[in-house]
Amino acid sequence: MHNLTLIKGDGIGPEISDAVLKIISAAGVDINWDIQTAGADVIEAEGVPLPQRVIDSVKRNKVALKSPVTTPIGKGFRSVNVQLRKELDLYANLRPCYNLPNVKTRYDGVDIVVVRENTEDLYAGIERQIDDDTAESIKRITRSASERIAKFAFDYAVKNNRKFVTVVTKANICKLSDGLFLDSARKIAADYYLPLKEILVDNCCMQLVQNPNQFDVLLLPNLYGDIVSDLCAGLIGGLGVAQGANIGKDYAVFEPVHGSAPDIAGQNKANPTAMLMSAIEMLNYIGENDAGQRIKSALFITLQDGIKTADLGGIASCTEFTNSIISRL
Description:
It is a single chain. This protein is of the alpha/beta class. The protein folds into 2 domains: 1-93 and 241-329, Isopropylmalate Dehydrogenase, CATH 3.40.718.10; 106-235, Isopropylmalate Dehydrogenase (3-Layer(aba) Sandwich), CATH 3.40.718.10. Helices cover 40% and strands 20% of the residues. The protein contains 11 helices and 12 strands. The chain has helices spanning 13-26, 40-46, 52-61, 80-87, 143-159, 177-189, 201-210, 222-235, 273-285, 289-304, 318-327, and strands spanning 2-8, 31-37, 63-66, 92-98, 111-117, 127-131, 134-137, 165-169, 196-200, 217-220, 243-247, 252-256. The strands form 2 sheets. It has a 10-stranded mixed sheet with strand order 2-1-3-12-11-4-5-10-8-9, with helices on both faces. Strands 6-7 form a two-stranded antiparallel sheet. A hairpin with a 2-residue loop joins strand 6 and strand 7. Helix 1 runs parallel beside helix 11 (318-327), helix 7 (201-210) runs parallel beside helix 8 and helix 10 packs across helix 11 (318-327).
């Protein structure tokens, strides 16, 4: 029996959460879910989008599966995702991107792993309003956080038989902050046999859309990592198939990359693939590798058989897609 936290978000979050839990249960994994809610829906009752009870639950259980939570744009509360990462020191954001069966994309053979620093940079939220017409954000980069994420990237690359790591910065312009991130990556790379390649973020984006197969593991600061990981998701079929994990020394939270899609909430149209892929990584993380592999195989066979949700060019509802995966376990 595993005791794990489930954070149900808003929008399509509850729908895809239910679908994924149903698949995991059908695979025979014995989990006692501590179900928590977060986001805009809890503000009226509890005053904050991320109540302390959610943090306490993850700290008790060490591992959480989370569905999307809406983040207001340009106003309102700060991202629940960002708060979770800071509160739990989930310093590594891991986003593997690879082609799925029968999902039409512009490229074949894409297999890129994005490793994104998760705790600082502009996402630290250090901002101030100087006057009515001027606002200021501070980009904070530290050597300790930079070396820590670089070591995570190289350890992951070695463990997973990757060929090299590419560090992505804008160190030609941000000479101090990005320069420090780059210098930290070089220092850590000296302890490993794998090569470290270097590229500027704008060139990286161009190269990704020209020939993504030239990349292996990408190591990036927070903001660039967020942008580039979404670009990589576009290479493999979109955010509906993009998985994610936030990993720290003591805790881990697994979640899809996409947002809460409130425009289709409650219509049984949502694609649970990204959350299911994240859950598969969670199962591997807690040692349920056999169940994770069986679920992954069932998902791939379902896609290969042409059963897909509308965002992937199919006609299956969320329920039909979920039941099809279960029938193939």
